[in-house]
Amino acid sequence: MVKNRPTARKSSAASPRLPGRPGADSPELRPRLLDAALACYVRDGVAATSLRAIAREADVTPALLHYYFGGGEQLLQAVVEERLVPAIDGLREALPPEATDVAGLVAAFVHGIGEIVARHPWLPALWVREVLCEGGALRDFLLRRVGPQIPVLLAQRFAQAQRQGALNPDLDPRLLVVSLIGLTLFPAASAPIWRSLFGADDIDAAALRGHTIALLDRGLGIG
After folding, report:
1. Domain 29-70 belongs to what topology?
2. pTM for this structure?
3. pLDDT tens per residue, range 37-59
4. How far is 214 from 223, CA to CA, in rounded Å?
C-alpha cells in the first residue's frame, strides 16, 4: 500500500486549503520552506531553531519538512546551498578582472555588498549571528568556502598592488580586507541602531555606499 505524501498544515480535517497556500506537490513549496527556515535562523539562531518552529513559520506539518529535507542538518545544508551560496557567488562575480586598479576593486566590492544586501536583507544579521559569534553554525562555511574565493583573493590582489606602488605601503593588505568587510556588512547589520541614534533615516543605501567609498579612497592614498 502506497503511503500518502505529507501535506501542508490544515486547521481541521474538513477545512479546505486556503487560497494561495501551496499544496505538498506545489513547486512553490520547497522555496517557501527554505525561506521559512532562513527567517527562523535569522530571528532565533540556527542552534535554537527546531523543525517544529520552521514548520510553524511555514504553516506546514513537521512531517512535510522531513519529507523534503530529512532533518535539521539537511535543511540547514539546503539553505546554505540554495540561499547563501548564490548570494556569495553574486559578490564574487561583481569583482572586476585582475587588471582593474585598487580604486576600481574597492568600489566594486562596496557596490557588490550593497547590491547583495538589497537583494538579500537577511544576510547581515545572519553573518553577525552565525559567523561572528562564537559557536556560529556558519563560521566553518565561511572559512572553507567563502574565504578562499573572496577575502583571500582580495588580500592577494591588494598585496600585488602594494608591491607595484599602487597602494599605501603602511597598510596591511589582509587587514584592508577586514576593514572593507567592517565598513560594509557591519553598517548594514547595525542600521536600526545608528539610524535611531543619529536620526539618520535620510541615509539610504546609495548614500552609505558613497560615504564608504569616499572614506576608503582617502585612506588608501589612491591618487
Report:
1. Arc Repressor Mutant, subunit A (1.10.10)
2. 0.80
3. 999 999 999 999 999 999 999 99
4. 12
